[in-house]
């Protein structure tokens, strides 16, 4: 199993949110630093960072809705929506401040995802 799956709130999948700040949190792995420039105040070097986010319409399929903060317990295998569901829709409540949509991927249930 890919070690990056261990820290995901709802297990492996593609994470979306209608809240831009929440999406920005998930975009951390895309963060890049632009070349420094001397355009800062008094000639100070200014480091600029950027992240990538997409605006998309998502095919949710049959959604499992929850207000639980987490479905994955640390040290346990990632948990998925019940059999027959394609995604998890997390609504604010019980420790969750922002909406989240997790579209599970077919290989995630079997842990056979391959990265290139």
List the helices and strands and how they pair.
Layout: E1 14-16, H1 20-26, E2 32-37, E3 46-50, E4 63-66, E5 87-90, E6 100-103
Parallel strand pairs: 4-5
Antiparallel strand pairs: 1-6, 2-3, 5-6
> What sort of overall outline do the alpha carbons produce when their principal axes are compared?
elongated
Percent range of helical residues: under 10%
Q: Kindly report the average pLDDT value.
A: 75
**What is the terminal-to-terminal distance?**
15 Å
The oligomeric status of these chains comes to single chain
Note poorly predicted spans.
1-6
Order of helices and strands: EHEEEEE
Q: Tally of extended strands?
A: 6
Number of helices: 1
Strand coverage percent = 15-25%
- The domain count comes to 1
Offer a few descriptive terms.
6 strands; 6% helix; two-stranded antiparallel sheet; 116 residues; mainly beta
Offer a quick outline of the entry:
The protein is mainly beta.
Characterize the structure shown.
The protein has one domain (3-108). The protein has 116 residues and is mainly β. The two termini are 15 Å apart. It has one helix at residues 20-26, and strands spanning 14-16, 32-37, 46-50, 63-66, 87-90, 100-103. It has a 4-stranded mixed beta sheet with strand order 1-6-5-4, covered by helices on one side. Mean pLDDT is 75; it is low at 1-6. It is elongated, with a radius of gyration of 18 Å. The chain contains 1 helix and 6 strands.
